[in-house]
UniProtKB/TrEMBL annotation:
The keyword Disulfide bond does not apply. TPR repeats lie at residues 77-110. It comes from the Eukaryota. It comes from Opuntia streptacantha. Pfam families: NatA_aux_su (PF12569), TPR_11 (PF13414). InterPro entries: NatA_aux_su (IPR021183), TPR-like_helical_dom_sf (IPR011990), TPR_rpt (IPR019734). This is Uncharacterized protein. Residues 195-229 form a coiled coil. Keywords: Coiled coil, Repeat, TPR repeat. Signal peptide: none annotated. The keyword Coiled coil applies.
């Protein structure tokens, strides 16, 4: 770098590189200008100056300088590398890869360029290229741990787990017997667990278990060790050993449902569809009774039997589970039991049970068959449950009667108003539901969840302006609506988009739906920083899990809803295209003079109102964007706040097809 320069200017060039790496951009620019005074056509200096300007958000100048630098020195790997970095910063990954490859033709052994290329190949899932680049890095620097691990991971991602195991074993062969030192024990332990997970993936279960137990002393994460061991024992059908280990894990966490599921598999009493014979139900009941005695504080050991018990046994178990939770006052009790409503007959049993408990508390002040008096709040939570029960069954009048009774009993409990709002929504009275949700919100202005629930109800009632004002109460000061976008508040954008669509405001609806799509693009981009971080920190199992999650990211329900919403908008836009200015003028000509005058007045008022709102928003933004030091932090102004430009698309059906193809690819069963 800077080799064609005299010694003094070469030192200045090194200063430019150092200033870029340490983010001292003004210092770097000064050094670049010093060189360019004497050598105005020096390609590498022009490129580095462009790279620094790019970091200072002067992109147009940056591209101009980098292209000029490249034109002046096409045989410089630095110029090509910098051009690639510019494309990478703009997420033009394919173009960046081309630039890196051109740089490597000039300097094939440049470690830095090879590393940058490997990150882009992982991002773009060019797995064959990723394997080749990681192999090249390892051959150039075999004493670097990260190169061994990167080469192994590249083969794993390229569906060659057996080769990845060979590479990790070769790497272990280079280590001393007393490795790792204390400061690297966690990273080395993670690498060993990753290797064992690869052996499990390849089907070498005996070898994986042997390796796991042999390396136990070097694995720091003991919980992960035990979970990996019990998984292997279960797959090897060594059920007695696995059962003992699951019981040991339950001592650590008696509310982990996966441990109970594993224990059921060990005793041969597990069904994915939860369909059991009467004999199996009896054996399961006996198992969970013993577990309840062993893990007395476990809620899961009492809750799981409700899924498989039937009739009278179910009623008894449900009553034992519900009573203490009503006394304690657990608002989420109904949410906990709501999956039981999908099983035939159980909703009827719960209804009789709860009505019996409610009646007993009203008459005697306690539960049936109990001499102890319950606190007054127990009746409140019983009514709360019963109201939600009738709401679930579609009996809204009875549900409203019960929730009103609970509100009369204790008018200060916010959850009662939230549930009443939900019942009204289900009953179809959206305006009343929004008003009641707002009443609940006003009872606790510091509760973000209740605020969000209120916003949701307002949007369902198409009260978008009120919803926005309520939502921004929990955002930072300044450009408040943009804060919701910056926070990737997708539930709000989807609900707001649906409301605008119902009101026929396609521009704003489309803007909200496309904002959600943009969030998913950002989430995809966010994985980029983890390609090097995870290899460095050796969080390899989670890294591979994250990459696989990213590959199915667009099957998530929020993306599906946004894509479907955008498709509906484009279809409606095709069916009813917006009127052009000429058509509007023609319609105005047909009107009577008095009507024209009224129409123009309306237009002028609307324009004045919009202008005033924009000015007040700008003033708020300017005030809030002044820091303590007095510097203003300029924020990008949205050039199309109402989505009017989005409606000017030439082919709405082409745009709709683009999203339909994404849905077909990622959510074919929806």
């Amino acid at each position: 770098m800077g080799a064609s320069l005299p010694p003094k200017e070469a030192n200045h060039f090194k200063l430019i590189v150092r200033s870029y790496e340490t983010k001292q951009y003004k210092k770097g620019l000064k050094a670049a200008d010093t060189i360019l005074k004497k050598f105005p056509d020096h390609g590498e200096t022009l490129s580095m100056k462009g790279l620094i300007l790019n970091c200072m958000d002067r992109k147009a100048e940056a591209y101009e300088l980098v292209r000029l630098g490249l034109k002046n020195d096409l045989r410089s790997h630095v110029c090509w590398h910098v051009y690639g970095l510019l494309y990478r910063s703009d997420r033009e990954y394919r173009e960046a890869i081309k630039c890196y490859r051109n740089a490597l033709r000039i300097d094939p052994d440049n470690i830095e360029i090879l590393r940058d290329l490997s990150l882009l190949q992982a991002q773009m899932r060019d797995l064959t290229g990723f394997v080749e680049t990681r192999q090249r890095l390892l051959s150039l620097k075999p004493n670097h741990r990260m190169n061994w691990i990167g080469f192994a991971v590249s083969h794993h991602l390229n569906s060659n787990a057996s080769k990845a195991i060979e590479i990790l074993e070769a790497y272990e062969g280079t280590l001393d017997d007393d490795y790792p030192p204390d400061n690297e024990r966690c990273e080395h332990g993670e690498m060993l667990l990753y290797k064992i997970s690869l052996l499990e993936e390849c089907g070498s279960l005996d070898r994986a278990l042997e390796e796991l137990r042999r390396k136990e002393a070097k694995i720091v994460d003991k919980l992960a060790y035990k979970e990996q061991e019990v998984s292997l024992l279960l797959k090897l059908n060594r059920l007695e050993e696995a059962g003992g280990l699951y019981r040991a894990l339950l001592l650590l966490n008696p509310d982990n449902y996966r441990y109970y599921e594993g224990l059921q598999k060990c005793v041969g009493l597990y069904s994915e569809k939860s369909q059991y014979s009467s004999d199996e139900i009896e054996r399961l009941d006996a198992l969970y009774k013993s577990l309840q005695q062993q893990y007395t504080g476990s809620s899961a050991a009492k809750r799981i039997p409700l899924d498989f018990l039937q009739e009278e046994k179910f009623r008894e178990a449900a009553e034992c589970y519900i009573r203490p939770l009503l006394t304690k006052g657990v608002p989420s009790l109904f949410s906990d039991l709501s999956p039981l409503y999908d099983q035939p007959g159980k909703a009827d049993i719960l209804e009789k049970l709860m009505l019996n408990l409610e009646t007993s508390i009203k008459k005697t002040g306690g539960f049936p068959g109990s001499m102890e008096k319950e606190p007054p709040s127990t009746l409140l939570w019983a009514l709360f449950f019963v109201a939600q029960h009738y709401d679930r069954r579609g009996q809204y009048d009875i549900a409203l009667g019960k929730i009103d009774e609970a509100i009369n009993h204790t008018p200060t409990v916010i959850d009662l108003y939230s549930v009443k709002s939900r019942i009204l929504k289900h009953a179809g009275d959206l305006t009343a539901a929004a008003a009641l949700a707002d009443e609940a919100r006003c009872m606790d202005l510091a509760d973000r969840y209740i605020n969000s629930e209120c916003v949701k109800r307002m949007l369902q009632a198409d009260q978008v302006t009120a919803a926005e004002k309520t939502a921004v109460l929990f955002t930072k000061d300044g450009d408040q609506h943009n804060n919701l976008y910056d926070m990737q508040c997708m539930w709000y954008e989807l609900a707001s988009g649906e409301s605008y669509f119902r009101q026929g405001d396609l521009g704003r609806a489309l803007k909200r739906f496309l904002a959600v799509e943009k969030h998913y693009a950002d989430i995809t981009e966010d994985q980029f920083d983890f390609h090097s971080y995870c290899l460095r920190k050796m969080t390899l199992r989670k890294y591979v899990e994250m990459l696989r999650f990213q590959d199915r990211l667009h099957s998530h329900s929020y993306f599906r809803k946004a894509a479907c919403g955008a498709v509906r908008c484009y279809i409606k836009l095709f069916d009813s295209p917006p009127k052009s200015v000429t058509e509007e003028d023609e319609e105005m000509l047909k009107l009577a003079p008095s009507q024209k005058k009224k129409m123009r007045q309306k237009q002028r008022k609307a324009e004045a109102r919009a202008k005033k709102e924009a000015q007040s928003k700008n003033e708020e933004t300017n005030t809030s964007n002044v820091s303590k030091s007095g510097k203003r932090h300029a924020k990008a102004v949205d050039p199309d706040p109402h989505g009017e430009k989005l409606l000017q698309v030439e082919g709405p059906l082409m745009e709709a097809t683009k999203y339909l193809k994404l849905l077909q690819k990622h959510s074919p069963d929806s």
